[in-house]
Design brief:
The protein is built from 13 helices and 17 strands. By secondary structure, the chain is an alpha/beta fold. Helix 1 links the parallel strand 1 and strand 2. The termini are far apart. It binds 6-O-phosphono-beta-D-glucopyranose. 6-O-phosphono-beta-D-glucopyranose (BG6) binds next to helix 9.
C-alpha cells in the first residue's frame, strides 16, 4: 500500500497549550471542513492535563468556539470524534509508553499501520527529553508491516538557544529522523505575501536587473508590534526578541528578498538558495542597539532584574557580489507603539535629478507590507502645472483587492504541506545553522554588555528619535 493511501495520525505533544488552542485547532478544523486532510485522519493529543477522551474533546470544542465562532457544528463533531487523548509528563518514560499503546490501539482499530505526524507544540526546553522519550518508547519502529508508512516530525522555533546547542539538538533529532522527515516551522515562510517575493523578483524583468548593489541603497526588515509580552513572560524571558523573531522570521524575510534565483521551484532548490544566501550574512554587533520596554520586568514569570531585550536594531552585511556594501537592518520591538511588519528596499537616487532642486528626486522604494498584504512601488511624480515640482506617489498591489487570499492561515498551509511531504516552506538544517551563526556574535556582545540595554517607554516606537 502506498503511504498516501494510508490513514494518517497527527500526534500533538502539548495538546492543551496556547499554540494548539489558537493556531493548530482552527487550522485542523478548516482543513477538515475543506476536505483537505487524508480520508482517514485521526488526532492524538498528549499533554500534562488530566483529561479522558470526552474531556479533551470538550477542550477542543471550547477552543474552536473561541477561534472560529461560526464553525459548522456537525463538521466539528466529526473532528472531535476522530480525536483521542493521553496525559503524562515528558520526563517520565511511561508517558511515551502510554502513547505507543494508544497508537497501537488506534492502528489495530484502523486495521493497518498509519502514517504519523508528530507535532512538538511545546516550549523548546522539552525537545531533548521528548527525543529521548520517542527513541526509547519504540514508537519509531512500532509497525511491523514491510512498508509501514512515514513518521514525520514538526518542530517549532526557536530550535536551540545558540549555535552549539542547536547543532547538538539537531544531531539528536537526526538520529531519529532523516532530514526529509523533519519539518522545522517558521510560520513567516508560509505567509502568502512573502512567498510572492520570489515571483515578484524573478518573474518580472522590471525588477530583477536592478536588484543589486549598483542600484539599491539599503534594505530594512521590520517586525514592530504594539503588543507587549503579556502572558508569555515564561516563554520570552531569557529568550529575547533576537531569538524570538530575529534568528528566524527576519532572517528568512531577508533570504527571500536577497537570495539568488533557485534552479527550479522544487523544495530542494529553493531551500538550497535560501541556505546559500544565509551563509553569506554577517552581523555588526558593535553597531547594534537593544532595548527593553519600561514595565517588562513586572510581567508575570519575568525575572525582576531581567536584561532580556524586547526590541533591537541590528545592522547586517551580505558577502556576495550582488550585495557587497549594501547596508541591511533588522529591527524588531514589542510594545513598540505600532504594528509594522515590512521589508523596505530603497533604491539609489538618480545621479542627476531633473527638477527644481535635489529634493525633487526621492528615493524610490519597494515596500512589502504584511500589515495589509501589499506590495507598493514608491516614486516621484510631477505635480500638475507649469513647474517641475514633484510629489511622492505609489503603485500598490493589495492581495485582498486583486487576488483574494483564501481564509486559510499559515498553519493550515504548513500542516497540509507536512502531511503532503513538501518541505519548501520549512527550514533546513543548513539554513538553521547559518541563522544561528549570524546571531551568535550579537548574543555574545549583548551577554558581555558590550552593547548597553536601553529602557524605552512602553507603547512608543523606540526607533523614532524623540525631539529633546
Ligand atoms: C512569533 C513570536 O513567532 O511570531 C511572537 O514568538 C511574534 O513573539 C509573532 O509576535 C509574530 O508573528 P505574526 O504572524 O503575528 O507577525
Amino acid at each position: 500500500m502506498s503511504s498516501s493511501a494510508r490513514p494518517t495520525i497527527m500526534i500533538v505533544l502539548g495538546a492543551t497549550g496556547d499554540l494548539m488552542a489558537r493556531k493548530i485547532t482552527p487550522a485542523l478544523y478548516r482543513l477538515w471542513h475543506g476536505g483537505c486532510l487524508p480520508a482517514q485522519f485521526e488526532l492524538v493529543g498528549l499533554a500534562g492535563h488530566v483529561y479522558d477522551d470526552a474531556g479533551y474533546r470538550q477542550w477542543l470544542a471550547d477552543k474552536l468556539q473561541a477561534a472560529v465562532p461560526d464553525a459548522d457544528r456537525a463538521m466539528a463533531e466529526q473532528l472531535y470524534a476522530a480525536s483521542t487523548y493521553t496525559h503524562g509528563r515528558f520526563e517520565q518514560p511511561e508517558t511515551f509508553q502510554k502513547l505507543v499503546q494508544l497508537l497501537r490501539e488506534r492502528e489495530r482499530q484502523l486495521g493497518q499501520c498509519a502514517n504519523k505526524l508528530i507535532y512538538l507544540a511545546v516550549p523548546p526546553l522539552h525537545y531533548k527529553r521528548i527525543f529521548h522519550g520517542l527513541a526509547e518508547s519504540g514508537l519509531m519502529v512500532m509497525c511491523e508491516e514491510a512498508d509501514s508508512g512515514w513518521i514525520r516530525i514538526l518542530v517549532e522555533k526557536p530550535f536551540g538557544s545558540d549555535a552549539e546547542k542547536a547543532e547538538q539538538l539537531d544531531l539528536e533529532l537526526g538520529q531519529l529522523f532523516a532530514e526529509e522527515h523533519v519539518f522545522r516551522i517558521d510560520h513567516y515562510l508560509a505567509k502568502e505575501l512573502l512567498q510572492n517575493i520570489l515571483t515578484f523578483r524573478f518573474s518580472n524583468g522590471l525588477f530583477e536587473p536592478l536588484w543589486q548593489r549598483q542600484y539599491i541603497e539599503r534594505i530594512e526588515l521590520e517586525i514592530l508590534e504594539t503588543a507587549t509580552v503579556a502572558h508569555r513572560g515564561g516563554f520570552f524571558d531569557g529568550l529575547g526578541a533576537l531569538r524570538d523573531v530575529g534568528q528566524n522570521h527576519l532572517l528568512q524575510m531577508l533570504a527571500l528578498v536577497t537570495m539568488e534565483q533557485p534552479t527550479d521551484t522544487s523544495a530542494n532548490a529553493i531551500r538550497a538558495a535560501r541556505a546559500m544566501l544565509l551563509t553569506s550574512v554577517s552581523a555588526l554587533p558593535e553597531q547594534s542597539w537593544r532595548g527593553q520596554y519600561d514595565g517588562y520586568r513586572q510581567t508575570p514569570d519575568v525575572a525582576s532584574g531581567s536584561t532580556t531585550e524586547t526590541a533591537f536594531r541590528l545592522p547586517l552585511q551580505i558577502d556576495s557580489p550582488r550585495w557587497q556594501g549594501v547596508p541591511i537592518f533588522l529591527t524588531a520591538g514589542k510594545a513598540a507603539g505600532e504594528n509594522r511588519r515590512r521589508i523596505t528596499v530603497t533604491f539609489k537616487r538618480p545621479e542627476r535629478c531633473l527638477g527644481p532642486n535635489d529634493n525633487a528626486c526621492r528615493y524610490n522604494q519597494v515596500i512589502f507590507s504584511l500589515e495589509d498584504d501589499s506590495i507598493a512601488i514608491c516614486f516621484s511624480a510631477k505635480q500638475p502645472g507649469r513647474t517641475f515640482a514633484t510629489e511622492p506617489k505609489a503603485l500598490r498591489f493589495v492581495y485582498a483587492a486583486d487576488l483574494p487570499l483564501s481564509d486559510s492561515d499559515e498553519y493550515e498551509r504548513l500542516l497540509l504541506d507536512a502531511v503532503g511531504g513538501d518541505q519548501t516552506l520549512f527550514v533546513s538544517t543548513a539554513e538553521m545553522a547559518a541563522m544561528w551563526q549570524t546571531v551568535e556574535p550579537v548574543l555574545t556582545a549583548w551577554q558581555t554588555d558590550r552593547v548597553p540595554l536601553t529602557i524605552y517607554p512602553a507603547g512608543a516606537n523606540p526607533f523614532i528619535p524623540t525631539s529633546a
